[in-house]
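Progress against Task 2.4 (sequence-to-structure conversion) is shown through the following example record, which the project officer requested during the mid-term review.
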Amino acid sequence: MTPATPEPALRKTLTEETFFLNLGPQHPSTHGVLRLLLRLDGERIVTCQPVLGYSHRGHEHMAQNRTYLQFMPNPPRMDYLAGLMYNHAYCLAVERACGLEVPPRAIHIRLICAELNRISSHLLWFGAYLMDLGAFTPFLYAFDDREDILAILGEATGSRLTYSYCRFGGVARDINQAFIDGVRAFIPKMRARLKDYDTLVTKNIIFVNRTKGVGVISRERAKAHALTGPCLRASGTAFDIRKAEPYGFYPQFDFDIPVLTGGDCFDRYMIRLLEIEQSLRIVEQALNRLPAGPVKAEGVPQFITPPSGQYHFSYETARGHLGIFLVSDGSRVPYRMKWRVPSLSNLSILPVLLPGTLVADTIAILGSIDVVMPEIDR
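Structure tokens generated for the chain above:
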């Protein structure tokens, strides 16, 4: 990413009064090893250059040196906050390439777990975002709710963060009654807690003043920078892969795509809270319709070998559009695997969004975008 040209109102001869400020890569509010090279004129930003690559781990290259099954633990480690969704997306991509049919019960279990993981990701963002802005109490509430989800998912997957629960053709094991009881108890509790969040945060005048009208992204600018997920929907575009290119049983479920038009930090906050309610609706419906039967397709070979060709699969993660481009030469090892992650494109808007704003608003704007650095430096 190259530094953006300052807005016309800010164009001036850069004198000794301007200076550089490194925000990160070891700053707690960047939530990862992200470095923002800011050029300042007093308290106002002139240019911003995101600097990446501090934690690159070569996942895409590793995919070319492992069988499809051996690569299974890698995707959850790209976006560790939405690890189960990455695990789910990878299995769906390979299954589509191989033409594998997944049993209905396994599809329902996958969707329940994926939506719970989406709520968990939004809750962590909510707590950390309010912490960045100086509010500590919401952080405690959010992590209390998130802990319930981690306990529920741990009952099925045995993990708390980097889940590797899905398998080609289904899931690793069936869910038990403790899982079902835990989900049924969590849904009403979370809905009640959303009302508490509305009272505690949404109507808090300090939070409103810190986020309303700050970091406004227009609908046209959001599309020009290929923003997806909550960042795009907060700017007035109702695009969600679960509706646009549905997978699983999403077309059979009744849920809405929250859309707002303000495009500021406050609307990006509101979108995520509204999405939590929609995920609860999906989980509730999937649990009520959960069929009996096997949780893994029969006859799935030990070594997956997709037919030679090029394949692409899209998935809606907590941060937006995840695209998996797979090239197979018919062997046990992928010839090439390229991942289109939402955090990278969402982050790309900072060089044109931050110039003209105050340094004090940088953390509010960056936090509202919700980037996860390990999926960028993959």
